[in-house]
Amino acid sequence: MKRRTMLRVLGATAGAAGAAALAARPGRAAQRSDATTDDPVGVLVDTTRCVGCRACEFACAEANHLPEPDGAAEPTPERTMTPAQWTVVRGFQVGDQNVTVKTQCMHCLQPACTAGCLTRAMYRTPDGPVTWDAGKCMGCRYCMVSCPFDVPRFEYDSANPRIQKCQLCTTRVTAGQRPACVEACPVQALTFGRRNNLLDEARTRIYTNSGKYVRHIYGEHEAGGTSWLYISGVPFERLGFRTNVAHQGYPALTREFLYAVPQVDILAPLFMLGLARATARKKDGTGGEP
Predict the structure, then answer these.
(1) Which class for 238: exposed (0-12), middle (13-18), buried (19 or more C-beta within 10 A)?
(2) Which of 41, 52, 68 shows the shortest CA–CA distance to 175?
(3) CA neighbor of 57 nearest in space, from 140, 156, 166
(4) How far apart are the C-alpha atoms of 112 and 56, rounded to whole Å?
(5) What is the pLDDT of residue 161?
């Protein structure tokens, strides 16, 4: 197993174990469930239709009250998501083709980030989108280590740092609306709907347009399946996609290990953290008896 993959698995393991211990206690966290519908909402991205206009980026920023996207003159391979920019359009030169592709959180069906979250701040909604409760985020960054797509971003420059990422416009979707990026796309490169219908649509486009698409739907099986699905006219590895992602859900990779981990190993790091903070307060003269 490669070192980076091992770190992701261990991150999901430690986080999931910690979350299990916390969930065993009474309170809000114990009542939260990641159970979802068998046919979640999702988005199909057709990279052959994308023109790189970046309208999706600006719509995302407006809908989520984020700063205006960066002023890149044109999409490049180096563009990447930031805590203040949850989606970016990247551009690739493949042979004589200039291909642009939108990137954001993949919203996994079995998200490693939720398994890796110690406080259950990160969770999957009943209809599929993976979102979070910012008030519960403790900044442990296990979700960053766990994610096979390197999506969550941390606010390193903030006085109150939190994790940030695309939420698939959870509020809009719950209200029966389409995600802002989908609604803003002028060329219908983004299609919103139920995942099973999107898979049918993707297969129809692939098999009725001979030679136009590679015969692969990215996200159908990657990481156990994702709610964002992609079809392309060029191999996905040429567009910066990770093609070595396991087809099994990442939380499942840790299940047998979790059963063998005693709770003392889970809670010891949290105990040591609390002890260190208490000691620091006493040294500063801010702790002690009231």
Answers:
(1) middle
(2) 41
(3) 166
(4) 26
(5) 85
pLDDT tens for each residue of 174-188? 999 999 999 999 999
Q: Name the strand (E) or helix (H) holding 200.
A: helix 195-208
Residues whose CB falls within 8 Å of the CB of residue 97, separated by 6 or more in sequence, listed in order: 233, 234
Distance CA 105, CA 43 (A): 11
The number of beta carbons lying within 10 Å of the beta carbon of residue 32 is 16
- Sort strands 41-46 and 190-194 into parallel, antiparallel or unpaired: antiparallel
CATH 3.40.50.300 fits domain 3-236+244-255: no
Is residue 235 within 8 A of residue 241, CB to CB? The reply is: no
Q: Looking at this protein, which amino acid is placed at residue 40?
A: P
8 Å CB contact between 122 and 113: yes
Residue 203 binned pLDDT confidence (cut-offs 50, 70, 90)? very high
pLDDT digits (tens, 9 = 90+) for 141-195: 999 999 999 999 999 988 788 899 999 999 999 999 999 999 999 999 999 999 9
Contacts of 259 (CB under 8 A, 6+ apart): none
Distances (CA, A) of 254 to 62, 109, 263: 38, 16, 15
DSSP state of 67: P
Transcribe 112-147 into DSSP letters: HHHHH-TTS-EEE-TTS-EEE-GGG-----HHHHH-
Residue 230 and residue 202 in contact, taking contact as beta carbons nearer than 8 Å:
no
User: How far is Cα of residue 201 from the mean position of the Cα atoms in its chain?
Assistant: 23
Q: What are the structural domain ranges in the chain?
A: 3-236+244-255
Calpha distance 125→106 (Å, rounded): 14
Taking each helix axis from N to C end, the angle separating 3-23 and 263-284, rounded to the nearest 10 degrees, works out to 80
